[in-house]
Amino acid sequence: MGQTLSTPVTDKHSSTGSNDRLAFGQSAMQGWRVTMDDAHTTLLDVEEAPGIAFFAVYDGHGGDTVAKYSGDHLHKNIFADPAFGEKEFKTAIRNGFLETDRALHLDPDCNSESSGCTAITATITDKNILYVGNAGDSRAVLSRDGKAVAMSTDHKPTDFDESTRILFSGGYVENGRVNGLLATSRALGDFGFKLTDTSDPGDQIVIAVPDVVEHELTDEDEFLVLACDGIWDCMSSQHRRQHIDRRRMR
């Protein structure tokens, strides 16, 4: 989990896409990690639900297995949830996260104790309602009328509510990390922190339960940024908003 290269891999893999309603750009870089552990999903149109768009970033650690699996399956689990068909999007997103975590645990190729990923997702409905799902310390930031507006809250072990839950579940926080090891308090995978025999997914030391934020998009909303903590550790949300805005104007 903590291994790094002596020199970062700075090659960037980028793409763009658009339709008559939305446009996106994405870029990924391996950096100091031994392998590229991150994944992403960009869906301008959802086949199962016309008018729906979905985007996500999965920041992996301990290998790329969980991030890649999540990138392939989490959105499908959201769309397949009965609540999605009833337009109960918050419920569907929560259930989709938990179903993905459950499926990972049952898959012998994915259920190692050390591999995991954070997940930040954006679902945009045909009514221009944005739903942001977050488990971990990746972040969603909305640019609204020139200002950065947080659409998620970082799940850090040092947060009071998170540390209280960790302690109640039998874990501890040391040097800002769960059990001295993991820098995020919520994640998909990381089954070494999910050993409690319980039917409540919120009773584990590390949980995959997402926060889900709902926001009605208006003409004041310019763009949304989804990024892993490696970005936010180097730039404030407002700095990142300005950085992107300058390049959009070129």
Automatic annotation (TrEMBL):
Residues 1-19 have a biased composition (Polar residues). Its EC number is 3.1.3.16. Keywords: Hydrolase, Manganese, Metal-binding, Protein phosphatase. The keyword Cytoplasm does not apply. It catalyses: O-phospho-L-threonyl-[protein] + H2O = L-threonyl-[protein] + phosphate. It comes from the Eukaryota. InterPro entries: PP2C, PP2C_BS, PPM-type-like_dom_sf, PPM-type_phosphatase-like_dom. SUPFAM superfamilies: PP2C-like. One of its GO terms (molecular function) is metal ion binding. Residues 23-250 form the PPM-type phosphatase domain. Belongs to the PP2C family. This is protein-serine/threonine phosphatase. The gene is PTC2_1.
